[in-house]
Specification:
With 198 residues, the protein is an alpha/beta fold. It is 50% helix and 13% strand. The protein contains 9 helices and 5 strands; from the N terminus they run βαβαβαβαβααααα. Mean pLDDT is 88; it is low at 128-134.
Length: 198
Amino acid sequence: MKVLLIDDHPLFGFGFAQALSQGASGIEVLTAPTIQDGLVQAAAQPDLDIVLIDYRLGDTDGLAGLRHFGDRFPLVARVLISGDEDPVLAQRARAAGASGFLGKSSSLQGLLAALQRVADGEAVFDNDTRRATAGAGPTARQMEVLALLAQGQPNKRIALELGIAERTVKLHVTALLETLGARNRTHLLVRAREQGLL
């Protein structure tokens, strides 16, 4: 399965792509920072199966990206991923031609399972991917927090960047420490690099 991830946070995009690639055999994940760059990459990948588009993009939003890809590459499945897991947004994604809508609270194993279902021709708009899975590793949202931690950003700045509460950032950091078996933030970054997440 070949997946193109479009996300305008390069560090997160790289780490998330690495985590997906290591989470299952037979998956190749390419990355692009913008819809335009993604369209160029897709044109050079005739065997592309899925384009995974983040809802929050600097130059546009993921819904517009879904439509652009639908116009240019109608045979490539399109999936929107977002930290805003609003059912209305899922409906808008479906209306824009998405084959799936995935929330960033999903475990990596849940995301991989959902992507496989999409690759198999199914539509995935349910909450199956949110079920916690033992040993699943960081969630997509936690990967975003991790990427910003690696840039040296404090909790307040991370909260502002991701549009979430500061206490939520603290919860994500605590979960990351537990998931990666780290003692503190510095050790967390070391462990993340050891596991190929950064």
